[in-house]
Please model this.
Amino acid sequence: MNSFMKKYWQLFLVAGLFLLTVAVIGLCQRSQVETVGSYVAIDTQLSGESQYARYVKTRTNLSSQQELNNFPRAISDWYGQDYDTSEVKEILEADVLLLRSYSRPVFSQPIILLIIQSAELSSFHMPHLCYLAMGYLVDSVQDDHVVIKDQDWVEQTGEQEPDEIPTTLPARVRQELEFEPYQGRIPAKRFTACKQNEDGEVIERILVLYAVIKDVAITTDQIHLIRVSALIPLSGGYDATLATAKDFMGEVVPLMFEPVEEPQMAITSLAESGAGGYLVIVLAFTIPLAMIVYALCAAIMTRHRAHVTAPVTGEDDSQEKTD
Model:
């Protein structure tokens, strides 16, 4: 046994670390129903996950330029026209990009829809940073939300509407209640940006509404961005344009996603399954940890024996030389 431990403790250590890594990755993986589409989170930040992240399932393959090109040009009474994005796509090093202008007779200003996908974070500067780089003055970025009126989403709307939430509650609590799962809404960010001439006069003012789409699977780094923008008056309010932009985004999202329940981590599903699930979790960690502890103990014992043996050998050699 001592010879075996001396020879193979490194192998046990590597195997134990490998099995522990596999256990952690496997148990932290979120389960997915075996149907068409994949789970993604609609959120407002690139890294991490905000408390308002909304889990949905894709209806369109956002990683396919062909499918994105076939995204409906007619949405309700909106009609779209594509822009040439070859240069922009190359500059941003984007894998997939769609830039389309939608207009309708009853709204004087067109709405610009941008959908971009990339596995490189360098392609994703938050929109307000992009506008700053283009010479715009950007107002503060604000949290907002978009109401989805599609029937599949409305059916999952909670019973408590925002108007029914007591006004006596703190603002933070009211906000969290408004974003309870499946109230037919998704989180978004918005801001306005303006461009001035040399005299400091505002010559252009634009409203931007956007959301970040992140894959749930930990095996991919793909990130998508959906941005809706429209020109607004050079001064004053823009409530009408904001309402129109939200309504348009509310039409776009159901064409790309469908609401689903938040996918659970495998460890959570196993824990909820009962004693058998707990046993699997315990074994998944106990076996590799036992191998790691065994290997470390073997390494310590081997080195200790070598340290103890070395002086004895040295003494014998010195005695032989004396004789």
